[in-house]
Amino acid sequence: MDTRITPLVPLDLKSWIARQLDQVELALDRWVSVDAGADLEHHAPADLMAAMRYAVLDGGKRLRPLLVLAACEAVNSGLKHDYLPIEECDDELARRGVIDPEAATQGSGEAALRAACAVELIHAYSLVHDDMPCMDNDVLRRGKPTVHVQFGQASALLAGDALQALAFELLTPEGSAIASAQQAKLCRLLARAAGCAGMAGGQAIDLASVGLQLTEDQLREMHRLKTGALLQASVMMGAVCAEPMSVARAALHRYGAAIGLAFQVVDDILDVTADSSTLGKTAGKDAEHDKPTYVSLMGLDAARAYAQALHRQALQALADTGLVDTRILQGLADMVVQRSN
């Protein structure tokens, strides 16, 4: 079989991100609605749906959906050793090549889009609950009043609950959009990342750590669960939506772990270096609430150096995947450490 490949198509990361964000926003707008259509059999109370839509739409970096979609494309690009050795190819351009990743994702696009939206719904629900008075008691999120400020605490609690449930409804559609085995894998990855061994567990540690001096290992474990688990799951869910390869899976897992922790380190840095208008949320709240952070533990310069070290770990993990094209995942790793909000 002729496995030669065409030249690597030029990548415009900004254009790729814009295209993916457009489709994610359209899908969220369609699925988080009072009448979501035939594929989702629910008709939610209008007031509850208004709070849900307020929590999800028109805001946020959408990093988690982007990671799902990027990982799916990367795995679909194939493993380098699947192709003929360069000396056996008569096309010199093959040394730089992969097939067009957009063509490669045909057949996995529906699963990836649903997974991308599902992980964003889980993220949105967590923010709604985290901002409530019983948790972080914050009044600003994504540049606008938090959900409990806008709709009241009871509505915010219910909106978060409903968003979590809707995430798993998206992953289990009727028909053949996602194979049953694939549905089970996606649900398990997302449930584990969101539950007591992931995001919820990390938040519990965070609440119990106020005013305490944690060690670096303890702080890393807290953020591995609270922030890193869902980012890591986003990468792995994208791989599942394609054709998961055992060789690439472990390295993708390490990539997700590195950028998950890097995201939180940068968050801690921005909390003391950026203002509320830039962040879209209340700046300086960690220090105000006496929460342990990488800056309070290591100092600002050391925290910045640690973020760069995690970035290097992420890029090395991508190199270790053996995948032909990981440029988008590389670009997203760059964004994580270079972001200003």
Automatic annotation (TrEMBL):
Cofactor names from the entry are: Mg(2+)
InterPro entries per record: Isoprenoid_synthase_dom_sf, Polyprenyl_synt, Polyprenyl_synt_CS, Prenyl_diphosphate_synthase
Gene3D superfamilies per the record? Farnesyl Diphosphate Synthase
**Keyword tags:** Isoprene biosynthesis, Magnesium, Metal-binding, Transferase
Q: Which residues form the signal peptide?
A: none
Q: Which Pfam families match?
A: polyprenyl_synt (PF00348)
Which SUPFAM superfamilies is this protein grouped with? Terpenoid synthases
* UniProt keyword Electron transport present: no
Give the family this protein belongs to, as stated in its UniProt record.
Answer: Belongs to the FPP/GGPP synthase family.
In Swiss-Prot or TrEMBL terms, this protein is called Farnesyl diphosphate synthase
Tell me what organism the protein belongs to. Rhodoferax lithotrophicus
